[in-house]
Design brief:
Blueprint (H helix, E strand, L loop, with lengths): L1 E7 L2 E8 L2 E5 L9 E7 L3 E7 L5 H15 L6 E3 L8 H5 L3 E7 L2 H9 L4 E7 H6 L11 E6 L3 E8 L2 E9 L4 H17 L11 E4 L4 H9 L3 E2 L15 H8 L14 H65 L3 H15 L5 H12 L6 E10 L7 H10 L29 E9 L6 H16 L4 E5 L2 H6 L15 E7 L14
Parallel strand pairs: 1-4, 4-8, 9-12, 12-13
Antiparallel strand pairs: 1-2, 2-3, 5-7, 6-7, 9-10, 10-11, 14-15, 15-17, 16-17
Helix pairs in contact: 5-6
Amino acid sequence: MKTILHLDASGQTFWQKDKTGWRPLASEKVTANDLIFVVTDFAEEIFAEVKVPRLFGRDRSDFIERQLQSRFPDTPFRTVLKTPSTGKLLDRLAPPQQVLFAVDSAARVNLALDTNPSMLAGVWASSALIAQLRCIETLHHDIFVVVPGNGTLRIVFLRDRRPVLARLAPCSNKPSDQAAEVVRTLRHLENTRVVERSQQRYPVWVLGHADTLIAPLVNQGLDVVSSPAPWNHGQPVDWRSVIFDLASTAPSAQLAPSGRRTRVLGNKLRLASYGAASLCLVAAGWTTAQNVNGGWLARKANAREQTELAGINANLAKVEQRLDEVGVSPDLVRQAVALDLNEIVGSPGLSESISAISLATAMDSKSRFTRYESRSLADEETACAKAAKDSAVTGSPSTTEAAPTSDLPTTTHTSVPGAKPPRRIEILVEFLPSESLMPRERARSIAKVSKNLQNIPGVTLVVDPAKAAANGILSNSSQHIAGPAPAWCLTLIKNGVQVQQVKGGTS
C-alpha cells in the first residue's frame, strides 16, 4: 500500500488512503516493506530560471548539472524541471531557458529518511507539485497560485506556465493580511525584473475557500479566478489530498538521489528481468511449437508420398504381369516407348514439311521441283555440311557463302531444363524457275523463294543460292540463261512446320 510521508516545519506525519480519502497513520504501523512517497512543505523550496546555450546531448546535461551544483551546493535534493514544448523546433529540442529546483533543507529531509526503514519511492516538494497540476494549463500563462494554511500562506508564481518563484510566508488567517502578502510577492517580482512593472492585473487561483479573499485581492489590483475542472463544482476540504494524489503517481521533479532509492530501483530492475525472461520463454515455446508442427507436417507428407509410391509400384507390377501374359518383355516395351518419343513423335512430319515447302516455292505453272531429299540429323551433327561443300567445289551459281556455325532457327522455342533438344531434319531442295525468265527476273524469283522458306516456322536456311543468282545478273543482264537448278539446304524442327499460307508466297 502507498504511504505518504509529509514533512513540514512542525514535523512529520504519515498518511494512507482508504475508500474515504487520505487518513493520518501512526508511525509504528509503517513497516519496512511499505513504499513511501515523501512530500515536503518547507520555506526553502527554490526555483531558479537559467539560460542555456544551444547545446545538445551530453554537453547540455553536463552544463545543467554544473548549474545545479553551483546554485544549490548544500543539498543533493535538486533537479531540473520539464519545460513546456512550445515555439520553434530547435526551441523544443533544446529550450533556451530551463527551470532548476531544489529543497535546501537537506538536513531535515535526511533525518526523516534515516529514521525510516521503508522503501523510498522518491521525494517531491509541494511547490513543484502545485506547478504540475494539469488544470493550470487551462488557466492564464502568468498566474499566482495561493494555498492558505494554518498560520502560513504558500504562494507559487508561474510565468508563461513555468514556475519561477515559491514562498511559504508566515501569515495570519485574516483575508486582508493574506491579500497583502500576495501583493508583497508581486512587488518583489517587479523589483527583481522577473515581471514588468505595468498596469496588468494578474490572476490569482486560491486553493481553498476564496470567498473571503476576493474583495481584498480585487482592491489590490488582482483578479481571483474560479477553480477549473474537476473542482469547478466542489472544492476539496483539504487541498493536501490533491497534492498527495499527484505525488503517489510518481510524477516528474523527483528530488531524491539514486543512492536513497536503491531498493525501489532494484525491484524495478528485477521486474524488468522477469519480463524479459517471460518474453524469452514465450519465444522459445513458440519456436518449439513451430518445430514440432513442421516435423509433424513433414512426417505426414512423407507418409503420403510413400502411399503414392506404393500405388505406383502396384500398377507397375500389374503392367509387368500383363506383359508377361502377352509374351513381350518389359525392356522391349520401354525401348519401343523411347523410340516413339525420341524418333517418331519428336521428328518433324514429312507430309507437313513437303506441303509447306511447296507453298513457299509455288511461283507459276512453268516452275517445278527437280529434287527433294530429307534425312534426320543427330543431336550434335552439323546440318547441310555436304551441300555446302559440294556447292563450293563445283562453283555453281547456286552456291552461297559457307554454312553458319549454328543452324538453329531464329524462331524462339521454349526449352525445359534437363529435356533433350528438339529433333531436326535436313532438307535439300532444287527448284527450277521458268526458262522464259530473264536473269534479273530469275534472281528475283530465287530470292523470293528464299524469303518464303525463311518465313516458315521452325526453318533455318543454311545454303541459300539467292546471292549467287544476284551476282549472275552483272554478266548476263539481257540474255536468257537457264543455268543449273538452284539448290537450298535447310533444317526443320519438331512442331515448327504447319501447312499454312506463307508470307510473301502464293498458294
